Amino acid sequence: MKSLGKWFGSALAAGSFFALPLILVPSAVFAQTTEPLEAPAADTEGSATPDVSPLQSETPVTTDSAILQGLDKITARVSEFEAPIGETVHFGSFEIVAYACKKTPPEEPPESTAFLEITDVRPDEPASIVFKGWMFASSPALSAVEHPVYDVWVTGCREAPPAINPTPDENAVEGDTPTEEPAAQ
User: Fold this and answer.
1) Cα-based distances in Å from 154 to 6, 79, 136, 147
2) Is the pLDDT of residue 13 over 90?
3) Of 19, 39, 58, 65, which residue has the fewest beta carbons closer than 10 angstroms?
4) Which residues fall within 8 angstroms of residue 151, CB to CB, at 6 or more apart?
């Protein structure tokens, strides 16, 4: 027991030796001034200042569906499926509704987040909400589904391809409709 006290005593002495320079810092280093700070003068001749600060983050990209993976713990089978925003999809006894799925812009580190509501619907029991909240693709254990049979996690978000609008014929005149010629007999 004496050796333990001796060790702690020497550790405390060593700690106080290293902390001593922090305690004896002159008060002039932390002195506060009462003079107001002035903003730097604007450069009226030079280049235009950017509207967005380089430290500001971009807004996340909103998508049309969440890409999810599910694990059936009984069969050890992993399935990947897509959950369109606002629609109900089924995985085992789960009904999953994705309310939002956002991903970071390409110039930032990749991250996908989805707001999900997962309901366990069994025929012999009333439906119960198993999970409701945000899931992060980079940290699936941060907000995990607690269920004895199934696991579900977000792997990404998918944007719908842009709709292709047919362009009208440039040579057509308004009111003209193509008509079929009667077949020659």
Assistant:
1) 53, 12, 6, 16
2) no
3) 39
4) 70, 71, 73, 144, 145
Cα 34–38–43 angle (5° rounding)?
170
What are the structure tokens assigned to 65, written together?
Answer: 């569906």
Q: Give me 183's structure tokens.
A: 């077949």
SS3 102: strand
* Prediction pTM value: 0.56
Query: Can you give the pLDDT at residue 150?
Result: 94
Residue 122, both tokens = 């069994």
Collapse the DSSP code of 27 into the 3-class scheme (helix H, G, I; strand E, B; otherwise coil) and give the result.
coil
Task: Please report the pLDDT score of residue 143 as a whole number.
Answer: 86
Q: What integer best gives the mean pLDDT of the chain? A: 73
93 C-beta neighbours (distance < 10 Å), count = 16
Residue 119 · residue 95 · CB < 8 Å: yes
Q: How far apart are CA 146 and CA 118, in angstroms?
A: 11
Task: Classify burial at 117, counting beta carbons within 10 Å of its beta carbon; exposed 0-12, middle 13-18, buried 19 or more.
Answer: middle
Contact, 106 vs 159, CB < 8 A? Answer: no
pLDDT at 93: 93
Task: List the structure tokens of 132.
Answer: 């409701």
